[in-house]
Amino acid sequence: MKKENKGLIHMIRWGITLFLPLVILLTTLQVFVFDKDFYLKEFSKYEIPKVTGMSMADLERVAEKMIRYLKDEDKDLVIEGTVKGERREVFGEREKQHMVDVKNLFQGGYFLRNIGIFSIIAAILLLSRLAHRASTEIYKGIFHSSILTFMLMGLLLILMQIDFYKYFTYFHEIFFDNDLWLLDPNKEVLIQMLPLEFFIDIATRVVLWFVGIMIAMGGIAYVRLRKATY
């Protein structure tokens, strides 16, 4: 039997450890961001029809438009609705320009997720060829990724509870190179539709689901590793 290159196998296994959480996180985020029912529940919860002066039917149409836009199914965010009794285009130029940046961020996320999927598949195939006990190495990668996730997301949840707005602001300053995200809640519909509380709710759900999935996968991997030991 050919001797294993343990250093190479360890490096390949780290590909699973690092990319698996990334793929699961971005996929979980996508599920919630593209869930129209989630938006409608939030609109009702925070009385968004009253805040925006729009009917729930119009808000639903706008939410559908935003989802299609972020999926790149629609090329613009031009949509009309009745806002406080006036028939007008819902979003102004500043709001639309900010959503261009948001869409670009999402497209970058899709690209990164796809790289992650490719890297995980490549790591599994390489381990299958190079490791004597490939399944054990794969489960080690999954188990370690769950530990890494639990530590990082635990810290993130603590920071979110301490001062969500502070770290939400840091996020925008890191990922956007302009101030278009600083919208006026007194007159711009986008921020009225999606207040800070909306982002707290979606971030909390994404993190909890993400951590839950990773813990479940880590638990399965741990059981498999225990069986392989004995």
TrEMBL record:
Keywords: Membrane, Transmembrane, Transmembrane helix. The keyword Membrane applies. It comes from the Bacteria. The chain crosses the membrane at residues 12-34, 110-130, 142-162, 202-223. InterPro entries: Lit. This is Integral membrane protein (TIGR01906 family).
